[in-house]
């Protein structure tokens, strides 16, 4: 007869794996490997993930509908799969609300065999408001709960391209960085500060992008807590008045290409950042058309650190 303790363990094991949607039940287990270099990928849905460069991906943040096939596949490649976390900031001032929000996310992560959460709160916070400290507390408590409950789990937080309270987001950046595994720095939409008229310009200009990292590092955040987010999208500005008789059919288009991304990736290496990622991986053309295929490959290739 099996000792009681072993039976209990077996029952627990069966309960955990019983609902595993993967062909190989072990794929429902958490990812424990800690990569030296993060390639953090946002996925917004559908099946283009099948064409991603999985030799590089370390984390997929699922911002589309939950897809168990994606979870199983990512796990088979050793990549973490994380939830999206967003919550109205006025609610999190209440510690009991925070606790129930975290419990709910944890439950979701466990039932979907996810490896953590990416907290994406892109809301204004007044420096002297109660939300300021509540947000840091939310991140800290989420990290503690996830690390305690899901082995190897990862908790990350999305911040704007600069810590200078972009879009009126006054956050405790050093406190939040300490409270989670790393920050995903959204180095794009860098024109967002324009509250009046917007003039066509780059989405993520090189110098401005790097100045954001310099500022994060200057305030005491370790480069190892920073993952650089690059845009895999651009902006198409219809020209209002290019010339007197223009019918507005001229456009100015700004986007990042493999060259501009490689330059940013070189900074990552020189400054020892934790890794790279993009908003979002679905943006490329995965149709398989010969020209698209080559360009798409070059975009993925540009993420790699050059030796
Ligand atoms: C921030 O909050 C303070 C105190 O409630 C208020 O006086 C101030 O106007 C607010 N600032 C902004 C930018 O909302
Ligand atoms: C930021 O958060 C940390 C940890 O909670 C705290 O020690 C620090 O005083 C906070 N900094 C500011 C400027 O509020
Ligand atoms: C970017 O920064 C470099 C080094 O500080 C400077 O030489 C260059 O002129 C800058 N470029 C732009 C477009 O501001
Ligand atoms: C475009 O240019 C014409 C001629 O210079 C001017 O009359 C018109 O007001 C301009 N329109 C806008 C939207 O600036």
From TrEMBL:
<dbReference type="GO" id="GO:0005764">
    <property type="term" value="C:lysosome"/>
</dbReference>
<keyword id="KW-0378">Hydrolase</keyword>
<dbReference type="InterPro" id="IPR017853">
    <property type="entry name" value="GH"/>
</dbReference>
<dbReference type="GO" id="GO:0009313">
    <property type="term" value="P:oligosaccharide catabolic process"/>
</dbReference>
<dbReference type="InterPro" id="IPR001223">
    <property type="entry name" value="Glyco_hydro18_cat"/>
</dbReference>
<dbReference type="GO" id="GO:0006032">
    <property type="term" value="P:chitin catabolic process"/>
</dbReference>
<dbReference type="Pfam" id="PF00704">
    <property type="entry name" value="Glyco_hydro_18"/>
</dbReference>
<keyword id="KW-0326">Glycosidase</keyword>
<keyword id="KW-0732">Signal</keyword>
<feature type="domain" description="GH18">
    <location>
        <begin position="1"/>
        <end position="307"/>
    </location>
</feature>
<dbReference type="GO" id="GO:0004568">
    <property type="term" value="F:chitinase activity"/>
</dbReference>
<dbReference type="InterPro" id="IPR001579">
    <property type="entry name" value="Glyco_hydro_18_chit_AS"/>
</dbReference>
<comment type="similarity">
    <text>Belongs to the glycosyl hydrolase 18 family.</text>
</comment>
<dbReference type="GO" id="GO:0008061">
    <property type="term" value="F:chitin binding"/>
</dbReference>
<feature type="signal peptide">
    <location>
        <begin position="1"/>
        <end position="18"/>
    </location>
</feature>
<protein>
    <submittedName>
        <fullName>Chitobiase</fullName>
    </submittedName>
</protein>
<dbReference type="GO" id="GO:0005615">
    <property type="term" value="C:extracellular space"/>
</dbReference>
<dbReference type="InterPro" id="IPR011583">
    <property type="entry name" value="Chitinase_II/V-like_cat"/>
</dbReference>
<dbReference type="InterPro" id="IPR051887">
    <property type="entry name" value="GH18_Domain-Containing"/>
</dbReference>
